[in-house]
Amino acid sequence: MKDKIFYFFLFLLVFILIVPAGAAPELGKCTDCHSDIKDVLPKGHKNTKAADISSCMTCHKAAKSDNEPHPFSAKMHRVHLKGDSKLDCSFCHIIEADKSFSLPKRKSIGEPDKDTIETLPELGELWADSPYLGTVHANKDIMCSSCHGEELPLLDARPTNDSCLVCHESYAALAAKTPGKDHPSRNPHNSHLGPINCRICHKAHTASVNYCFECHKRFNMNPIPTGK
Fold it and tell me: Strands, E, within the chain: which ranges?
């Protein structure tokens, strides 16, 4: 019995000495799937031996909450969120429920709860490859942060009209693009209801709806753009 106790504490001591406190979890490497990283780099990319997301981030920056496209972030997420290339978020991101969500050597962008973490892959797929507005934005290299801000959005987070109009200018500018097919005055962005919440009609991760049809069922209006 004494021998067992001795070896147990010896193992514990060795473990403490070898594994530093707070050591970051080991993340996946590009070479886990790609035998030659050069085969997946875009034409003209400089030679690199990068084998993980940490190496990529020495040159490429994470997306910020502005209205600028982010081709690197968008492409990396699009190709790895659909089809046979589908990866779990934890392949690249360091995730601790209720504590942090980050990339290597980058500050945390939120403290997602367990439910949010479990739902992120599904929302990512809907952004990357769906018939919904999220994919319209994805195909233009617009990342989640442009609508939701730099903090990782929780499940009940919703974009505001102000965040939509950062890119879409104003209701007047939108109205100029969406006159009614038969009658120009039948315009969803210039209605008798005024500037209603964009989310009444526009849904990023589910099917969008035309709120006007709730009352005006015979109106012939331009369809809301879709991702397919």
Answer: 94-96, 100-102
Structure token pair of residue 100? 């942090």
- Write down the residue that tokens 């982010």 correspond to: 70
10-residue block means of pLDDT along the chain (228 residues)?
51 45 66 86 84 85 81 92 87 93 89 92 92 94 88 82 91 91 87 91 93 89 83
- Residue 201 CA to residue 210 CA, distance in Å, equals 5
Q: Please provide the DSSP assignment of 76-103 as one string.
A: HHHHTSSGGG---GGGTSEEETTTEEE-
Contacts 24+ apart (CB under 8 A), 175-182: 178/221, 178/222, 180/219, 180/220, 180/221, 180/222, 181/220, 181/221, 181/222, 182/220
Q: Which tokens sit at 225?
A: 């753009």
φ/ψ of 201, rounded to 5, equals -105, -45
Q: Name residue, tokens 């934890």.
A: 90
Q: Which domains does the chain have, with CATH numbers?
A: 63-157 (no CATH), 162-214 (1.10.1130.10)
Block residue for tokens 């919703």:
158
Whole-number Cα distances in Å, 199 to 133, 160, 164, 196? 11, 8, 10, 9
Give the C-alpha separation, 135 to 129, whole Å: 6
